[in-house]
Amino acid sequence: MRSGFITWGLISLLFIPRALHAQTQESPWMAGLSAIFLDYKGLMTGDLTQVRSFDPGITIGAYAYLNKSLNFAINSSFVPEATYPISEVGTFIGTSLIDVNALVHIKSNNGKFLDEDAVLAPYLTTGMGFNTASNQFRMYIPAGLGLRVQVSDNFSLQAEAIYKQRIGVNKFQHLAYSAGFVFALPASAPPPPPPPPPPPKSSALADRDQDGTPDRDDLCPDEKGKIMYLGCPDKAPPVAVQPQPPKEPNPSKQNSGDVVIEDEPMQFEEVDVTDGDGDAEALVSDDTGTGTPAKVSEGDIRLLEKAMDNIFFETGSDQLTPESLKILDTVSDIMARNPAYILVVTGHTDNTGPDRDNHILSVRRAFKVKYFLVNEKHISQSRINCDGYSSKQPVSDNATENGRRMNRRVDLKLVLPTQK
Question: How confident is the model at residue 290 (pLDDT cuts 50, 70, 90)?
């Protein structure tokens, strides 16, 4: 029978910890299962090294975290066949035994001697206990040593050696050795936190006239208008926009004919603004004198194409990146050199998300370009038309990340008013 209990205890130690490995350590309570071996004969016979009369059993326990220095433990043991003394002269009987202990563990892993998460954590233990066997009830004071070996955050191995001194006239003291494991019990689920209060409506998104243009961008915040007209009805500007004075060409930098090079350098140095013969294109488009506006120069066309490739927005937003604002300075210069033309700005998105949201975002992104050019560069808003086409005009395959990135864009085009 003893060999059966020993075998069962070994199987428990080998297999049960794997099933319990996923327990959480957030709870202060832990449970344990151990094999226990009682020794009555060693102390009574004076042969402390004998092991033949060890009585095997099983122990279950519960452990509570009190503080960094102390744990509380309560355990109960059952030994099916104990060599139990009934007199101090060495009379023993074989009987089943039930043992109960209430213990305090004085920990060394209290942050002073060892860290709380130390792998090896020795401790001292003492408390009160009793056992009952063969219709006899005995109380005793236990004192001993223990060791915990941390295997994971939730699971530890534990071994103890305890001396148990009986309280009373007869001194039926004995030794108890145990080895097993302890594991964390899940904490009771805390009540869900109350939902956070709704965030206050951002003043940046306020829209008094409910026309879809935030007040921060709306040139007519109290009059319902259209996004493409900066929140104003039709194309009537609410304030007079002062045009920038034309730049005087530097005679020392003029080439022959009507070719003029501006004092300020272009924003994109890598862009070649020469024609196929290596001669500089005319960078000023003006009336030809015949009533027909001059064509936009190849240099400006290429600069505009380069600008389109470098206008970016914050992810999922209509906010222009700082780099894009510098590029729009170049777009403003191109418009100043081509006063007879208007700029058509169209926003586009990839096919991610609802089409309605994408359409609104594409319009808002085009509107942001217009807003910057009108308010920061003083371009007349009547010279800028904007619209959005959502994901309906892709330039690349939306099935790839690179293709979607290329489709998230703003197109710019200079056209004559009759071409709108």
Answer: low
